Amino acid sequence: MPIPFRSQRPPSPPPASQPTTASQDRHYLPDDKPVYSCHSCSEAIALQDELVSKAFNGRSGRAYLMNSTINTSLGKTETRKLLTGTHTVADLICATCQSSLGWMYIKAPNGEQRYKEGRYILEMAKVVKENKW
Asked: Where do the Yippee domain residues begin and end (predicted)?
């Protein structure tokens, strides 16, 4: 049986300090696609097909850059000094258990970093890969 999920599409950048939330629309994941799930509650967070890069670092170590996430909400927008410069980001939170999973890039500091805008960091220590095959 397909797994239900709520879609999280990259929103337009919100005004500073305004929280944003995940869409409440219900959809279904394919049974045979690998997914990343929340380490705390096992909620599906992202399809492996949405993986852009494994060469990123989060607060707790290695991280994945993802095109989109599901079953998540965003915290307040803030400016954060990261390894590649000062970025505007919003924390990425599991919609089910409220665990911190990483962040979303809202605005990058310069042209060479803009490919990150609207994409998500999933910290490897906070998610589990489920192969589904």
From this structure: 34-131
Q: Is this model's pTM higher than 0.85 or not?
A: no
Q: What is the CATH number of the domain that holds 81?
A: 2.170.150.20
Outline where 20-87 has alpha helix (H).
Answer: none
* Tens digits of residue pLDDT in 73-117: 999 999 999 998 999 999 999 999 999 999 999 999 888 999 999
- Number of domains composing the chain: 1
| Residues 87, 2: Cα–Cα separation, whole Å | 37
Residue-wise pLDDT tens digits, 35-62: 999 999 999 999 999 999 999 999 999 9
| Continuous segment of H or E residues that includes residue 124 | none
Cα–Cα distances in angstroms (integers) from residue 58 to residues 9, 14, 29, 32, 121, in the given order: 21, 22, 26, 28, 7
**CB-based burial, 90-99: b 16+ in 10 Å, e otherwise:** bbbbbbbeeb
